[in-house]
Amino acid sequence: MSQRPSLDAATADTPAPAAGDEHHRRFELLQAQPPIDVEEAEYWRLLGYPPDHEPSDRALELAAWARQWYAANGRPWVYLRETRLELTPEALRLDGQEFRSQQLHDHLREAGAKRAMLVAVSAGRSCEEHARQLWQESKPDEYFFLEMFGSAVVEHLMATMNGRICDLAERDGLAAIPHYSPGYTGWDVADQVPLFELIGRGMGQPLPEPFEVLASGMLRPKKSLIAVVGLVPQSVQARATNRWIPCEACSLSPCSYRRRPYRHARSSAAQRDEAQNERAASVAPAAAPFPPSPHYSVSERALQKWSRERVTLERRADGSLTARFRFDGTTCSNMGRPLAFDYTVELSPEASGRVIRRTECTPTADDEGHRFMCAYLNDPAALMQAIATEKPLLGQPLDAVLRWSRVAAPSGCHCTAASRAHKWGLALEAIHYTLAHPPRDGATSPGLSLPPP
To answer: Which residue stretches does the UniProt record annotate as biased composition, category Low complexity (predicted)?
Structure first.
């Protein structure tokens, strides 16, 4: 039986001893493309939304687009290595390199740190480069949402590294204290340079992409973080005050090492609501036509809102139905004029798998905004013909939308095939979600039409 790795065990992630430490192989880990699962509440917090604020449809669409774009194009990575810690009343050295920050010294010494880890995480260059391109294309909304998602990825990566360190340290009777980075209170951001150099000198394997630090201390890619994590005996940490317990600043979930609630956790009322929803879902009919936990490209918060406000279902006596989804957007130029389209989908009965029999996309009866789209102004007949003839997933089960790989294109207009496919994806996922989460206890959603008795 294989043993769980500890800080004192050489693993596949440590092909060679750390530099300058020939007699003791210290733990080293480098991982490209680690799993990314940014908590929705964390993302909205970084975007600046109050916890109970209801984002607009445009904000929900941009948030979903940023997440989808990063899932397809992001190149995150993480690096972790133990460093030799020398801590005296007068000095702090890591692998022989002295750091003069009194705050860092006291942070480690007062906690009783016996060992330390060096950490580097990055959301990758592609995120920063694409955000810069969006800004140059005069798309400030897309730029901002992608920038903030990059920040959320960095926080998520650091949280997962905290979880890994907790796991590794526990086997050796140790516990982690909160990480500390240059730029934090009492540690000059200029020390990013010597800390960066220290990490690079002891690295036993190359990083998956270029990583550098400027003379100012700024990292490139800028959505990156380097840090020091102290390790203390568990007996000491167990008696410690909240100051030395990283859990309150760590959003990793689930985590079997959590000892305090996360300070930015959702309200207890929201958690109770979610628990009630999960309990209700557990007693849903077994004959539901969709997987019990489908994976959508859009956040559940957006789907819940759209299900209530934008989806209508017209059921027929034979079990078939017509679903409609209303999309409200804006033109990407011409002062962002509002526009609205109706998406109509006819589905076969549940017994035959909810096959998509007919699809249609048309401007709403009172919409004039579509006439100001760039493609319409250039060739109105060609654009409207394209909108009318594009019928994605026709003849396939509605469930196929969960496996449909499409380009993230959050522009509010319908000028390109990619943007039109993106909106069809939103419509089909919203309809799928509505059918997979029917009203309970005899309730009827505002947009639900039942057949006559």
So the answer is: 8-19
